[in-house]
Write a sequence for this structure.
């Protein structure tokens, strides 16, 4: 198949990775932080990168589906969106920005999770809760992730003060 040939089968959509619990968490956070979102987007432009990447993806997925012969057979002739090759190239280049932003966010959130609570003086989250939130197998795995993203554990971070 050359680069100008179209596939003989319709492309299979990639399953979306957000489960029902994660969708509920997203809705709750979106509601809780709705007032802060415009300020964050203005102050931190990279926060908008993943949204734009999804927009380019959706546009190109539509183009691929509508331009496929199976679509025309099923629905009839439909206007095909532009190819927008430059947009796809730009989106691919911005993936690095999105990855770096997520890496930084993970480290910052892990640090916040293990910072002492203002009410109890103990870390905000135990490594058991961090492990569950990250979807890793164990507290040890969560501790390892913390070490890689934040740095070495101190007495409070490691649970030596009696806090797991």
């Amino acid at each position: 198949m050359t680069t100008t040939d179209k596939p003989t089968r319709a492309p299979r959509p990639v399953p979306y990775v957000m489960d029902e619990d994660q969708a509920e968490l997203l809705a709750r956070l979106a509601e809780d932080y709705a007032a802060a979102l415009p300020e964050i987007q203005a102050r931190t432009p990279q926060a908008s990168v993943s949204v734009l990447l999804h927009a380019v993806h959706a546009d190109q997925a539509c183009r691929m589906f509508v331009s496929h012969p199976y679509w025309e057979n099923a629905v009839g002739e439909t206007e095909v969106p532009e190819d927008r090759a430059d947009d796809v190239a730009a989106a691919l280049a911005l993936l690095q920005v999105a990855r770096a932003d997520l890496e930084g966010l993970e480290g910052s959130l892990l640090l916040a999770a293990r910072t002492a609570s203002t009410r109890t003086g103990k870390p905000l989250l135990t490594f058991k809760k961090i492990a569950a939130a990250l979807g890793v197998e164990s507290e040890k795995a969560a501790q390892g992730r913390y070490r890689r993203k934040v740095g070495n554990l101190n007495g409070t971070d490691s649970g030596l003060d009696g806090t797991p």
In short: Confidence is low (pLDDT under 50) at residues 10-15. The radius of gyration is 22 Å.
